[in-house]
Design goal:
Helix content: 40-55%
Distance between the termini: 29 Å
Strand content: 15-25%
Number of helices: 7
Strand order of the largest sheet: 3-2-1-4-7-6-5
Number of domains: 1
Number of strands: 7
Shape: globular
Length: 205
């Protein structure tokens, strides 16, 4: 069931242009450990053999190698008890902002207030390095979506479905933000509008 869900979300990410080639990884936390995509796998073309079970220290239970970014997932789960699923991909608009080290923080539409306060950019570090884990996790202590400088983005949620929706919505925000630059700049929501949206968000909890 979990492997099938990961496969389905991998296809969705590919079909929505939220992943490319063999980049990115997906994981789901369970009582038995963490199911995570294997190293070198293409998220749009996964099969069950491409999904590896690791323990909460990152050790594989079989002969298959987990993603080289496995410790990023492990550490996020350790720091965030509310997180059960993580998606790391390189979507083109979020990655463009990440490459420019520009966080998303302009209040241009209600959705980005309701879903995110902002989307920060974690400082650059080598892929798969301990420093990358530290830099990214420090930004994710109170955010569910974070961009990684010159790399990509990470979305985390209580379920894989919600992690996908966060990544999709974040990419939409990045895309609309970029388009507004070509049109002369967005007309930002004012502080009263933002306050009303935050109150609405609190009431919905």
């Amino acid at each position: 069931m979990i492997k099938s869900e990961i496969i389905d979300v991998g296809k969705l990410l590919y079909n929505k242009n939220l992943t490319v080639g063999t980049s990115g990884n997906i994981s789901v936390k369970t009582q038995n450990g963490i199911y995570i995509t294997g190293t070198g796998t293409a998220l749009g073309f996964l099969n069950e053999d491409d999904i590896v079970l690791i323990d909460f220290d990152g050790k594989e239970s079989g002969n298959k190698k987990a993603s080289s970014e496995k410790m990023l997932h492990v550490e996020i789960y350790k720091q965030r008890n509310d997180i059960n699923a993580i998606i790391h991909t390189h979507p083109e608009y979020l990655t463009s902002f990440a490459v420019c080290h520009k966080e998303l923080n302009e209040p241009i539409m209600s959705e980005n207030i309701l879903y995110f306060e902002d989307i920060p950019v974690a400082p650059y570090a080598m892929p798969s390095s301990e420093k990358l884990v530290k830099n990214t996790v420090s930004c994710m202590l109170n955010r569910d979506v974070v961009m990684m400088a010159n790399h990509g983005a990470v979305a985390a949620a209580d379920s894989l479905k919600h992690a996908f929706l966060k990544m999709e919505t974040a990419e939409y925000w990045a895309k609309v933000t970029l388009y507004t630059k070509f049109l002369g700049g967005a007309k930002l929501l004012d502080q009263n509008d933002i306050k009303d949206l935050i109150n609405l968000k609190q009431m919905a909890k």
